[in-house]
Write a structure and sequence with these properties.
It is a single chain. By secondary structure, the chain is an alpha/beta fold. The protein folds into two domains: 160 residues, NAD(P)-binding Rossmann-like Domain (Rossmann fold, 3-Layer(aba) Sandwich); 172 residues, Dihydrodipicolinate Reductase, domain 2. The chain contains twelve helices and 13 strands. The strands form three sheets. The chain has a six-stranded mixed β-sheet with strand order 9-6-10-13-12-11. Strands 2-1-3-4-5 form a five-stranded parallel β-sheet, with helices on both faces. Helix 1 crosses helix 12 and helix 7 runs parallel beside helix 9. The chain is globular, with a radius of gyration of 19 Å. Bound molecules: NADP nicotinamide-adenine-dinucleotide phosphate. The site of NADP nicotinamide-adenine-dinucleotide phosphate (NAP) has 29 residues, from helix 1, helix 4 and helix 12.
Length: 343
């Protein structure tokens, strides 16, 4: 078993990480960190447990520590980070320098040239950028990122369609409230309402997706040359981001060819990679957040409403934002790092 730590373990994503890691076949939770205000307390006191299963007894008495290299035991090799991005920017590099391998969900450094941004089923080869990172920074450890939750929902579908010549993407999101964290939007803001702006989210979708779909030549990642335009909305669903995508393609595939390419997109033989990765609905009106977000234990992407447009294809896609889009994404990246020999 690989001994792992969770940074930001008391937060919404941190609690999801505990749910996923506690029964994991390869990882054993050995360290939990949070802010100085939580440090020194047993986890059951430090965390306001709000996840949808009881708090695992194996973590209740673990003492929460500060998020510093000195506070984390040396026999822990892999850290899952769900820190606010400003905190991640400050503490993740020293942890990687101190020898820890960090699989991070925070948005800091996602677009840095020597930091791999990875969805394992889409661009597992980009993990090789860690060699460049280690050479350039002199780190014994490593820092690897998963993308933003709305980007993760869309990018596997674009990767599946890239064989038809992906040229341009327009996307409008309908994002669940859990994506903003427990106290992110108030009930007075979101009940009976839609918020047509999520700060920084459209820009993340427009840049991260092209890095993920880019080519890694052993030294650097060249972004995909498609254009992506995004607009984002917060809607009153709890979990599950639904996205309306228009993908302009060089070729003119039929609906059946598009559905077949999506269904055939391969998964990986990693514990958290669902089979199939992309679930295609042919019936109208699906996918829906409440009905379909838990497909593949919350790690599948589902697609429906595929239809031809004058320039390509239009469809709707959905993924669970705190599983496939956050905690599950970091765990899957940890599994990839183990499989690739980085631990
Ligand atoms: P959250 O509920 O606010 O949790 C934040 C965590 O960070 C808590 O454990 C908190 O500890 C800890 N923390 C805060 N300040 C700290 C400091 N100075 N030093 C060390 N630890 C500190 O946030 P979240 O919703 O879980 O999100 C975590 C990260 O994931 C963010 O970067 C977010 O953008 C990203 N993300 C979230 C989602 C989602 O669906 N929620 C999706 C994708 C990405 P205390 O309890 O001690 O304050």
């Amino acid at each position: 078993m690989v001994r792992v730590g969770i940074l930001g373990a008391t937060g919404a994503v941190g609690q999801r990480l505990i749910q996923l890691l506690e029964p994991h076949p390869d990882f054993e939770i050995a360290a939990l960190t949070a802010s100085p205000a939580s440090a020194g307390k047993p986890y059951r006191e430090a965390a306001k447990w709000r996840a949808d299963s009881p708090i695992p007894s194996s973590v209740t008495d673990i003492e929460v520590t500060e998020t510093t290299p000195e506070a984390i035991p040396d026999d822990v090799s892999l850290l899952f980070s769900s820190l606010p991005s400003s905190v991640g920017a400050e503490v993740e590099p020293p942890l990687a320098e101190a020898g820890y391998v960090v699989s991070s969900n925070s948005s800091n450094a996602r677009m840095a040239d020597d930091v791999p941004l990875v969805i394992p089923e889409v661009n597992a080869d980009h993990v090789g950028l860690l060699e460049v990172q280690r050479d350039e920074r002199g780190w014994d450890g490593a820092l690897l990122k998963n993308p933003n939750c709305s980007t993760i929902t869309m990018v596997p579908t674009l990767a599946a369609l890239d064989g038809f010549g992906l040229e341009r993407v327009h996307v409008a999101t309908l994002q669940a409230v859990s994506g903003a964290g427990y106290s992110g939007v108030t009930s007075m803001e979101i009940i009976d309402n839609v918020l047509p702006h999520i700060g920084g989210e459209a820009e993340k979708m427009e840049t991260e997706s092209l890095k993920l779909l880019g080519e890694f030549d052993g030294a650097e990642v060249s972004p995909h040359d498609a254009e992506v335009s995004a607009t984002t909305n917060r809607v009153p669903t709890l979990d599950g981001h639904l996205e309306n995508v228009w993908a302009d393609l060089a070729e003119s595939p039929s609906v059946e060819e598009v559905q077949a390419a999506l269904e055939a997109f391969p998964n990986l033989a990693l514990p958290s990679s669902p089979d199939p990765l992309i679930h295609v609905f042919e019936e109208p009106g699906r996918p829906q957040p409440r009905l379909d977000r838990m497909l593949g234990d919350g790690m599948a992407v589902s697609v429906g409403g595929v239809r031809e447009t004058p320039d390509g294809v239009q469809y709707d896609c959905l993924a669970h934002n705190t599983l496939r889009g956050a905690a599950g994404a970091s765990v899957l990246n940890g599994e990839l790092l183990l499989d690739e020999g980085y631990l």
